[in-house]
Amino acid sequence: MFGFGKKRRFEDWMIMGCGFIAENNRVYENIVDGELQNSNPGDPDYIAGKYLFRTFGANAAIAGAGIQNKLDEDLFSQLQNSLKLACIQGNKALPASKTLEKMNNQPGFMIEEIDIPMSLAGGIGAEFMDKTWTSFIEFCAGKEYASEVLVELYIQALNYPLKDQDTRTKSVMAMGMFTGLRNAVMKQV
Question: Which of 1, 77, 117, 167 has its CA 20 to 30 A from that of 35?
């Protein structure tokens, strides 16, 4: 990362996380809106899939900060909590910081708030996020078998709004996305 202090590293990972979340949000909307002629962004299944897709970005930044191991426990916990909340609450979940306030004005980092996905209640969303985090760390460590779990999670997220999808094409798209996330994270570690 560019800064040397823990606060600067924290902000760097927050910025990366928000960028990842915003990009995954855009990719999700493009996929779903491109395949459903009458997609409804207010539909509970659309929202559930969007939330799950956003967690890929949050977990990539959290995993990267964990692998880098330069944040103290309090800052790492704040990073985790803020990025997880940003998946639902958007940019307003971020802690106060001049650096993060500047980032909030950049379109590539804007994350809009979404409703709480009720279909993911009962631990479904948390379990999904845990699997993503664990698998992404293993994938970053070069354990390629983890890519199979990540592809399954990608397809699971899209299954909420897209009931009958071409999983072969989505598998290739998933691998491209996760490889890109891994490369971006590992450049910063």
Answer: 117
